[in-house]
């Protein structure tokens, strides 16, 4: 192991690395790379936690796993794999949710350093609060396609994860993509995966129903099936849009009590004559017949490109007309099967181009920077732990990894890490229930786990199951909350407290959000003056404002 070679680290640093206990939260794309780096750097006391099991789609970028790992716990397999690099490391692996109450303050206090390799905003917020509570340094990280970042978080020294609002990530469950698409974007994502299966080197997801049988045994992959049948366009059309749909429908429980259910296309569509689509403007939505003709033509063209390629592998490109026609045609044909509105070539190209893949190289670069931050933290060189950004294109100095000039100080108005955090809640107290307040405001938007709420010394919400507080069905007004009331909210599990000042909100329109949250205000009128100039969020039920002085 290179890190153990004399001279790589000073003896004092080498011992510090070896003795420091580190928690790694997440064993996915970044987590696998970080774990490998930690072991090779000489870290000997590690714990990993991840709640996921390994899927086939993980194998192209999570290199600690292989085909035999599918279905097993990520954390356990990662531990087993990385011990081959250095069997002398002491690693404890957990299959579980870091937000579970058994991973509380006592658990976090064991560690010298915590590393986040998560893709979940709520879990990131929770780990952020636990590290602030225990005064433990945290390294936060993430990637998006070819970009990424590494952030250092330390109580009183740097920004915390929640000092400024984070954009809500848009993600789509794979089970929805495969089995119950509801929107055009679901069909577009499915089509891109299908392209990878048929023509790419590998696929992020197996969307063909023949990839795995109902009893879990391996069957012929879509690529092998297509090669075996000579990429015959009509055979592919029937397999993908008839045989695979029949396979879905054969799973009796899959669509039980569900509104979304696929419908088989009429047999006539699979034997239709070719119709013209070339002269239709990109802004016009094609008919199903035109989409089928487009599919048949583009399969033949893409087959020729595949045969001409050096490695028998194609990479999807939105600027290739045949590749784009494949996505347009398959998206709309699948939309017809699931009763989803068709989209034009122009609309589909716009949406397909914005789907960001996971890039193994980006994960590796970010993981390397994480370990550099870890070494600086152990050395006490916090001032050198500025946020580092991975750029898609080099900057004017030719750099891909670019760091902030200085370590940014905590936001004094942060509702999580400031000492006097208070926010303002605007809500209709006569219609908003205590249960909605707990679930929608405290847990969903403020990311609390087990909140206790006091109003004028009276408890209206308790995290203790033994407490006889059962006011969930009552409105806020019915439990004595009035315009101008103040809540004292404590989450003892996160060691996190906040004050919430409440103002009565009248919904002037049906589409108005049920509640609004404003940060660091003394008077609601300050927010009302600004509200009309702020764009509405995508979710019509909520509005959250952070530091309004900056808007």
Automatic annotation (TrEMBL):
Species the sequence originates in: Schizaphis graminum (Green bug aphid)
Family: Belongs to the ubiquitin-activating E1 family.
Positions that bind ATP: 26-31, 50, 58-61, 74, 119-124
Example of a GO biological process term: protein sumoylation
Entries under Pfam families matching the protein: ThiF (PF00899), UAE_UbL (PF14732)
Gene name tied to this protein: Uba2
Record's keyword terms, sorted: ATP-binding, Metal-binding, Nucleotide-binding, Ubl conjugation pathway, Zinc
Residues making up the signal peptide according to the UniProt record: none
Superkingdom: Eukaryota
Gene3D superfamilies: Ubiquitin activating enzymes (Uba3). Chain: B, domain 2 (1.10.10.520), Ubiquitin-activating enzyme E1, inactive adenylation domain, subdomain 1 (3.50.50.80), Ubiquitin-like 2 activating enzyme e1b. Chain: B, domain 3 (3.10.290.20)
GO molecular function, one term: metal ion binding
Name under which the protein is recorded: SUMO-activating enzyme subunit 2
Pathway membership: Protein modification; protein sumoylation
Every THIF-type NAD/FAD binding fold domain range: 8-415
Domain Ubiquitin/SUMO-activating enzyme ubiquitin-like: 426-508
Annotated Gene Ontology cellular component terms: cytoplasm; SUMO activating enzyme complex
Active-site residues per Swiss-Prot or TrEMBL entry: 175
Binding site for Zn(2+): 160, 163, 414, 417
InterPro entries per record: ThiF/MoeB/HesA, ThiF_NAD_FAD-bd, UAE_UbL_dom, Ub-E1_IAD_1, Ub_act_enz_dom_a_sf, Uba2, Ubiquitin-activating_enz, UBQ-activ_enz_E1_Cys_AS
Presence of keyword Cell wall biogenesis/degradation: no
């Amino acid at each position: 192991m290179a890190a153990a070679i004399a001279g790589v680290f000073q003896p004092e640093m080498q011992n510090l690395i070896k003795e420091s206990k580190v928690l790694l939260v997440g064993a996915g794309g970044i987590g696998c790379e970080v774990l490998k780096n930690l072991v090779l750097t000489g870290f000997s006391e590690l714990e990993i936690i991840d709640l996921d099991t390994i899927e086939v789609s993980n194998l192209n970028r999570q290199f600690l796993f292989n085909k035999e790992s599918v279905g097993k716990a990520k954390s356990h397999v990662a531990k087993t794999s990385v011990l081959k690099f250095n069997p002398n490391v002491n690693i404890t692996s957990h299959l579980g949710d870091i937000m579970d109450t058994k991973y509380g303050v006592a658990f976090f206090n064991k560690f010298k350093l915590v590393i986040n390799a998560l893709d979940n905003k709520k879990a990131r917020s929770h780990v952020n609060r636990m590290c602030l509570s225990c005064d433990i340094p945290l390294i936060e990280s993430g990637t998006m396609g070819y970009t990424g970042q590494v952030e250092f978080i330390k109580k009183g020294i740097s920004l915390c994860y929640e000092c400024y609002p984070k954009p809500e990530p848009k993600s789509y469950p794979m089970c929805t993509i495969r089995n119950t698409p509801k929107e055009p974007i679901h069909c577009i994502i499915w089509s891109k995966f299908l392209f990878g299966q048929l023509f790419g080197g590998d696929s992020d997801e197996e969307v063909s129903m023949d990839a795995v049988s109902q009893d879990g045994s391996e069957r012929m992959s879509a690529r092998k099936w297509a090669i075996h049948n000579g990429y015959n366009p009509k055979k592919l059309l029937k397999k993908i849009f008839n045989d695979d749909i029949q396979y879905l429908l054969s799973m009796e429980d899959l669509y039980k009590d569900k509104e979304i259910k696929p419908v088989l296309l009429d047999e006539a569509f699979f034997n239709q004559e070719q119709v013209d689509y070339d002269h239709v403007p990109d802004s016009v939505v094609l008919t199903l017949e035109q989409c089928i003709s487009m599919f048949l033509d583009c399969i033949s063209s893409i087959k020729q490109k595949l045969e001409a390629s050096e490695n028998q592998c194609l990479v999807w490109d939105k600027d290739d007309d045949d590749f784009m026609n494949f996505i347009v045609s398959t998206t709309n044909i699948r939309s017809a099967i699931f009763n989803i509105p068709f989209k034009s070539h122009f609309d589909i190209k716009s949406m397909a181009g914005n789907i960001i893949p996971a890039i193994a190289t980006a994960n590796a670069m970010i993981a390397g920077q994480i370990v550099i931050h870890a070494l600086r933290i152990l050395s006490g060189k916090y001032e050198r732990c500025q946020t580092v950004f991975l750029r898609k294109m080099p900057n004017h100095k030719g750099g891909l990894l670019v760091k902030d000039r200085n370590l940014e100080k905590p936001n004094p108005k942060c509702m999580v890490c400031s000492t006097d955090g208070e926010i303002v809640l605007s809500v209709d107290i006569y219609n908003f229930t205590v249960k909605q307040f707990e679930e929608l405001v405290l847990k969903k938007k403020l990311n609390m786990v087990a909140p206790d709420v006091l109003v004028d010394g009276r408890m209206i919400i308790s995290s203790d199951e033994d407490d006889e507080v059962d006011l969930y069905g009552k409105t806020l007004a019915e439990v004595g909350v009035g315009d101008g009331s103040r809540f004292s909210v404590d989450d003892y599990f996160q060691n996190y407290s906040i004050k919430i000042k409440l103002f009565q909100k009248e919904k002037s329109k049906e589409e108005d959000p049920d509640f609004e949250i404003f940060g660091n205000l003394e008077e609601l009128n300050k927010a009302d003056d600004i509200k009309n100039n702020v764009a509405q969020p995508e979710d019509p039920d909520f509005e959250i404002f952070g530091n309004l002085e900056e808007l």
